[in-house]
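Worked example (supplementary).
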Amino acid sequence: EVQLLESGGGLVQPGGSLRLSCAASGLSLSTNAMSWVRQAPGKGPEWVSVIATNGYSTYYADSAKGRFTISRDTSKNTLYLQMNSLRAEDTAVYYCAKFLEWPNYYFEYWGQGTLVTVSS
Amino acid sequence: QSVLTQPPSVSGAPGQTVTISCTGSSTNIGARYGVHWYQQLPGSAPKLLIYSNTNRPSGVPDRFSGSKSGTSGSLVITGLQAEDDGVYYCQSYDPSLTDSVFGGGTKLTVL
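After joint prediction of all chains, the assembly is encoded as:
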């Protein structure tokens, strides 16, 4: 059974930083693409970032470019999202998800999410 | 404003059938990228319901089915049950925008 467990969310001031983690079990990060998807209160999901199966190729939504960095540690089977220069509009529940690459492009398994609140 | 357009709400009585539409454009659904559907029950994370237009992951009841035509996709739920009450999102891929794109969601109310 695939399980994805996010952690690291919390309250942070505008301009601050936060690092989210996603511990995976039942699947290997070294052989799967992974992503972060966020959902602001009362809104639909929004894709944030993807790290490809090769571990080198990374992709970001325009809203995350230059501020967020996705990475993984295959020895710990853990996915990360480093978030810098946080803004109020980054407030959301952040989910990690297994991502199916070309030609599929969908999110197969989701974690339970971790809440990030950006506020002074 | 979401890239994919869904009706805000649908409703139906137990046992009835409802259809949720998802309208995209020539750069996403119309460009032969698949339509995928997620179910989000209250207080839970989204869960994959239908992938690549018509396919159900293991464990998803066959009451749920999907289709795609042109620049639109549809999710059909037959034999509505109380536990189907929740929000349903469609998703596709659009390389001209921010890659993966979602619909705004449709709130299904089982009366």
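Two points are worth noting when inspecting this output. DSSP finds no helices and nine strands in chain B. Residues 23 and 72 of chain B are 4 Å apart (CA to CA).
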